From TrEMBL, chains A, B:
CDD domains: cinA. The lineage of its organism: Bacteria, Bacillati, Bacillota, Bacilli, Bacillales. Belongs to the CinA family. Pfam families: CinA, CinA_KH, MoCF_biosynth. HAMAP family: CinA_B (MF_00226_B). This is Putative competence-damage inducible protein. PANTHER family: NICOTINAMIDE-NUCLEOTIDE AMIDOHYDROLASE PNCC, NMN AMIDOHYDROLASE-LIKE PROTEIN YFAY. It comes from Peribacillus cavernae. Residues 4-170 form the MoaB/Mog domain. The gene is cinA. NCBIfam families: cinA_nterm, molyb_syn, PncC_domain, PRK00549.1.
Amino acid sequence: MDAEIIAVGSELLLGQIVNTNAKFLSQQFAEMGVNVFYHTVVGDNESRLTLALETAESRANLIVFTGGLGPTKDDLTKETISSHLGRKLVSDEEALDSIKAYFSKTGAEMTENNKKQALILEGSEVLPNDHGMAPGMVTTIKGITYMLLPGPPKEMEPMFLSYGFDSIMKKLETHERIESKVLRFFGIGESLLETKIEDLLEKQANPTIAPLAGDGEVTLRITAKDSSREKCEAMIAEVETEIISRVGEYYYGSNETSLIKELVKELTVRNLTIAGAESLTGGMFQEQLTSIPGAGKIFKGGIVSYTNDTKANLLKISDKTIDEYGVVSGQCAIEMAENVRDLLDADVGISFTGVAGPDEQEGMPVGTVFIGMAFRNQESKAERLNLSGSRAQNRIRSVKYGCHYLLRQLIE
Amino acid sequence: MDAEIIAVGSELLLGQIVNTNAKFLSQQFAEMGVNVFYHTVVGDNESRLTLALETAESRANLIVFTGGLGPTKDDLTKETISSHLGRKLVSDEEALDSIKAYFSKTGAEMTENNKKQALILEGSEVLPNDHGMAPGMVTTIKGITYMLLPGPPKEMEPMFLSYGFDSIMKKLETHERIESKVLRFFGIGESLLETKIEDLLEKQANPTIAPLAGDGEVTLRITAKDSSREKCEAMIAEVETEIISRVGEYYYGSNETSLIKELVKELTVRNLTIAGAESLTGGMFQEQLTSIPGAGKIFKGGIVSYTNDTKANLLKISDKTIDEYGVVSGQCAIEMAENVRDLLDADVGISFTGVAGPDEQEGMPVGTVFIGMAFRNQESKAERLNLSGSRAQNRIRSVKYGCHYLLRQLIE
């Protein structure tokens, strides 16, 4: 089954909202083993929507629409498909009842145009809307399956998970499974990583290997097709082992994880607490740490020492260090990490000091960053980075490198 | 000029990332008065990309590509367009130099495939990449303009703003101007705001008024069309004045601003310094403050007091307060704000304490948040919030309310 996802809505073409529906549905179809070859976004315009529909019919046999099922005049997805396919729109009693129920529940006043929402393509399977009024529907005509879903993600997503998913699965003749696994790397560039596994990329067929780079990280998505999950997973494991044997030192986790999640995990299993002292990152490391539920077990807190005063008075950095080496130095980074560790009575201290930009500081160029790490009963150390991004990128990369270095030291 | 935006990347079709590039570019084109009638997403596949290209040529005269300009084998946007248009790919010296410079700066290892990134369509205008390696390009052939941009938003967005925007503007024949202004509101719901300006929304034509809600904020985009910028701006000003007269108390800024930017601005003009003490927000307020260049003038730093120990030992919260009222209380919020202000010798202290979730705390339900504000020579106060979102939403909303309350107090 080859799918195309068509999002209908002028607000998308005006850039007022982003098409998260296509992402959600694509993930779902990837797991079902349905190929998605195109996403299309078109406005609330009958002729252009018809054109998009004809284009999709020429290249897909599953066409999924999101949006345009609302009560207003510019919601015309159903009407357009109805006239294109020559299928009447009929009122669905159950849908109408649930719309009436919705209004009596909320106490709002039901208007004539709300009845329009109960109209469905004659002969189609109705997908109930448990979080709104417009029902979804599925119908297959001349070998092409048309699925209509509402636009609001909070209605569309539960509708697809509760009803749409199974409705599609029933139509899949093939029993072929698709499994994939994402390997995550940090500290190596995309092109260098690819050079190291070039032969694997060359001869890839099944499983496939898809590299993706972003925010200083590189991921490899390994996707296998076979008759059973077990067979797929075995095929993936074989490729994975080969890749890890070559670039394992940069590998930090698989699938839905992140450097910060891995850090919280590794600190938790070792029952270690951490404290942070941040200058250029301004609290980003601590904010990310606390974005993870349960971080309270390992995170004591920390200090954002954005001025030299704060470094001296609150974080107790010695004048000697500030005068002799400056605040953008390995010495200062180490003292920050040790002091925040001791001030908060944590097992590990980490610090970030450097020049985020746009202006240089202490004669140090933008992108110069020192990360200090202080473990109890171990020699503290500082790592130097020379980053070349924007202010925002330099801050983000610094936090990622901090997690990367700490993870290395924890695992060693 | 009718535009179509084609995003190239299998990761989009697999649902690994969302197509924010289409949103960004659509916003830009809306402001330029260029109609965007379609977005298309296609994978890293030559034949399907060619098909998408042919479809776009049949319905648009400006085709903008994002993605597929990278160094790897599955980056084939340039190559596909080159063979489709019969235009050679030639190496651009400047681009090659900047790629070499990029590597020498970062000290990373340059590989053969990086040279591929310096290839451009012969005769095209090069759009320099100030945040990465792959240059963009623009060329017009047989009345159709093709623009190629890199995929990573951190590279694509500044490239378009610095070079792409003007390159398109030059090609626009029309002399009709489109100007728009976004008014930003916080502390009022979308539906309440709409009721207060219902009559204006009813009779809107030129200028148009488009409401949009998200993350607890509501914006109104006013868009006017006329022969000159001045005329547009006068039309916008009239509508704006009327709106502000009705809901001005919730208005905080216009166009590309944010609550945090306004806060930095207001503190700067008043020459006031600030310090923060954060529990549930874990440093998010301070991280956002320091994301703004120049925050160093007004931000001293702060404390992330994630445990009761840290509140007691580092932030000097009295045992009495913690025992009698608990850490999730207005009393604790006020003491946090006053203490961090005094510890860092700032003019203003702000604090965030509460229950982000998923679990309740001290018998307080998830979403209970206290924000403390302590100005010198003024009575300190705390505001209570009862939020109903996820852990992440509750943290973000808390920071926004903190900025909102501080701004109110500064302006009064």
